[in-house]
Amino acid sequence: MTTGASAAGRGVEVRLEDLQRRYGAATALAGLTLTLAPGELVALLGPSGCGKTTALRLLAGLEEPDSGKVVVDGVDVTNVPANKRDIGMVFQAYSLFPHMTAIRNVEFGMQLHDVGSAERRKRAGDMLELVGLSAHAYKYAHQMSGGQQQRVALARALAIEPKVLLLDEPLSALDAKVRSRLRDEIRRVQLEVGTTTLFVTHDQEEALAIADRVGVMNAGRLEQLGPPTTIYSRPATPFVAEFVGLTNRLAGVVKDGEVDVRGARLPLVKPDTPNGPAIALVRPEAVSLVVDGDTVPSPLVGTVIATAFLGATSRITVDMGDGTVLAQMPTSEAGALTAGTRVKLALRKDPVLIARDESKPTEA
Amino acid sequence: MTRSRRFKLQLFRITIFIVLGAFFLVPIGAMLEFSTRGNAINAPRNLDAWKNIVQTPELVSAITASLELAVITCLAMLVLLLPTMVWVRLRFPQLNRAIEFICLIPLTVPAIALVVGMVPIYRWININLSDSILTLAFAYLILVLPYSYRALDAGLSAIDLKTLSEAARSLGARWGTVMLRVVVPNMSSAIVNASLISVALVLGEFTFANLLAYENLQVAINYVSLVDAGTSIAVAVAALLFAFALLMILSFVGRPPVPVAKAEDAEFRVSQTVGLSGGLIGRAGR
Fold this sequence. Notes:
Chain A is built from ten helices and 20 strands. Chain A has helices at 3-8, 52-60, 102-112, 117-130, 146-159, 176-193, 204-210, 228-233, 238-243, 331-334; strands at residues 14-23, 26-36, 41-45, 67-72, 75-76, 87-90, 164-168, 196-201, 213-218, 221-226, 248-255, 258-261, 264-267, 276-282, 287-291, 301-309, 313-319, 324-330, 342-347, 353-354. In chain A, the strands form four sheets. Chain A has a six-stranded mixed sheet, sandwiched between helices. In chain A, strands 13-12-11-14-20 form a five-stranded antiparallel sheet. A five-stranded antiparallel sheet of chain A has the order 15-19-16-17-18. Mean pLDDT of chain A is 86; it is low at 1-8 and 357-364. Chain B has 13 helices and no strands. Chain B has helices at residues 3-35, 48-55, 57-91, 96-108, 111-128, 136-157, 161-170, 175-186, 188-203, 207-211, 217-227, 229-252, 259-284. The chains are: A alpha+beta, B mainly alpha.
């Protein structure tokens, strides 16, 4: 609990306790409980409308919960207005004040916190240096790129030395290359200042790349909270399995704590699943391919229809005759798998999840 | 674009400029000419009419009153409308339509009907509060609502009010600070536009003042024209020049840093100058 705090001495604990929020008939948050350790970066990940932004706005004080508590550094701030919460925020939309230069933007918050002008100027300069924009201190928002604007917004949010930093999809308006670079930069800065941070995004890659822990949300609830590796490799629910990463939905039959997918018997995450037909969720990287005619025995035979080169890995789409299966493997091993190649599939014996009941098994 | 097309376009622009310029300058020139004529036939040109402006006490007090009314109306409009509009947009967006409707009502009701409705109210105000001409500011506030609402609405639509105010809030700003340091500076041109149109309306207003028996600038011009046409025309020209001067000053104040916005503002202001001078000329011609 103290790793972040000892790094910079700034992180505080943040607790959201059973937060509920409704908009008319729609429930945005159906009881969210989440604790951020001091200095930790937690990403809330989920589809639009899952309540992640509502959670962040409740923490910021920009909206009020119907019930539940927000506790920052041991103090209940549920009824404290946004401007007294000491929380820095970076928004999805560009939010720099258009009539101020970058450095004036960064100074704005400090001015409201009665920081003397010399100190203010120095700290604003330091913050801009931290985000690598010293050269652009006297530019206006319209003279900067989107990525630069968001970096100034980050510097502005951190300049008031907030107890908590909130990032509301700050990268979603940027193009892919800038996005991944800024993402890494946000993480670097966050580690450097050690501020407890809540990051909201719908982009799983972003969440998995920079968060200490990822919370996957669905329909106003937290489905799973854990380190990125756990979220990815051991999803707790079918929703998480399908939302995070690519997943094959393979028809099979559950029998005695195992699922039989065309002869391959895979262990179950939840061995108490009742027997019967089911959809097994299998990651592409748990699928390996061998050119047909090899000695590896497999009842799963198909034809490669497409190969996507992703850099170090390649993703191969295999037509099984009654559906397609995705496989992901190191590019070095995928060389022989050109379109039209007959392949056998082998499934790694990782525990698999069974899709929810409402998605009736269809032959795949 | 070919050279000949560009030339034609240029020619077209110059023609429009000359025609429109003449449309505005000829009447003003004629007014200037008329106001400097001597009284007798073949009398030499003189500035008697202009000198009369300051020597006619009713005129001086009417001018002062109109200027004061313009300032009061303008300030009251901003204080009333700006926070209301910001608040509605941020907190009660569903009320936006209702507010717009209310603000536009004065546009649909003829001035004469409005005045008739106000007569009893003003009688009460005269007896119980004050009989100063400055009480006309209440009526003028209603009169300028539709126009200033439109101008401010355009300004508010041009900025991301929600994000900017939330950013300021999260940085520790109280609502007053949000208004004065974030909202106002970013819609300064809309505020200037709204103020300008309010000032223009008040300076050109005749019906309300006349029917409620107050002597503002236009009412005074009307009286003076019955006695001394030259002086009334001189006042009208002076009012016009004053408005031009005001425009020049205002267009240099509170310019936004965005160059694109400047060009748009300039066009908007020119169109308002037209409305302003048109109103004054029409009034003076009575």
